[in-house]
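Whether sequence alone determines local backbone shape is best considered at the level of individual chains. When preparing material for the folding task, we compiled for one chain both its residues and its backbone structure tokens. No coordinates are needed to read the tokens, only the vocabulary itself. For completeness, the protein is quoted in full, as a sequence line and a line of structure tokens:
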Amino acid sequence: MMNEKASLDNERHRPGVRKQLLIVTDKYPVDPGRSPTAWLLEHLRSLEGIADVTVVSLLRMLPRVKNLILGGYDRRWFRILRALPAVEQPFPHVTVYHRHCLTVPDRLGWKWNPALFVLQQQRWLRKLLHRSRFDAVLVHYLHAATPLARNGARSAGIPLWLDENEGLEALEAEGQARLRRWLLRQLSSSDIVLTQCSRQERELSGLLPHIRVHVIPPGAGDELPAGDIPPPPPFRLLCVSRLDQPGKNVAMLLHAIARLRHEEHLDVRLTIAGDGYQRRALQRMLHTLDIEDIVRFTGWLSSGALRELRREHHCAVQPSEHESFGLAALEAVAAGLPLIACADAGVVSDLLAEGAAVQTMHLCTEKQLVVAIRTACERLPELQRQAVEARGRLRERFSWSAHAEYYAALLGAEDLSVADPSVTGSGKEHSRDAGRR
């Protein structure tokens, strides 16, 4: 048995052998046109030429009922599910296995879901791992299936990578201290932790100094940038956001727009692109705040439609205080739009380091939103010049080709073997350099 395992390890690391990556996730975008995780498809596409990828897509049934009842964007999910094949191949180098799982909503009983995933999928996953020669198991979106992936990886002697993009700060702010502690335990048990921005790396390095962290940001897309000629007045703001989380602070943004109109008499128009179960309540707020004529909701839009929408606006706004990354903010500045956002929310500090035009806030309160929007309006010509100048640098650093290079370097590294838990601190210096490359 030991000789067989050694033979497999030698085969995995032999030069010239194409790498094999297994991804386990419960966020695979089965409906890309309406999914906030549609970027995962671009992530998979970028790995072509680097690795053959197998995706285990865990389709959680019961949590979708909430949005179905409340009228959120997952209403169509059940119809799509009926037509979904058990196995599909979206790209030549990618195979996706869709696995149905009965779980409960995390907020009602997240501690039960790890056991439910293991109970339903462990035998199947172990068979998959033992009949294939994977170089690593990657859990995309740290979630309740992490113990399932860890058990399978350990049984096959394969490194476990965890993609930490859940936003530990947000969990602390929302009072979910027990869930936060559970997530930290999962991160401690991994061989490598992947983060998407330097803020996440700093947070994890302070909480878990012994883990190996690699910063690999997603790409901003290859669509054409917004036009260099700004649209005519009035001042137009664009907010691209999910409408199913109070922490996104979209309601607070509406109150700030109402205050700017009624108290400061500033002519500002707002477009909100996104969907979720909060949309109906937010639309009812428009009448209460008397801003029905200056705020519009578009629902979910394709990347092409968003590109055209950015050309019609002067500035983007991200009103949340806590973001795991903030892809909408990155896409806005990469297209050449100035951004209004909290300075420490997700990728914003990295954008500032690259010279992006960001009007920052310390906290997202109604008062600070009002001040930031008014200041951005006053500084608009200066911000637009800065945004156009930084656009090229941002699109170069946050590109899918750069994203692929990070993965190629990581999969080609000599230290892919399972980490020794008794050794601490290894790899952190290398990972920080990789994040700045």
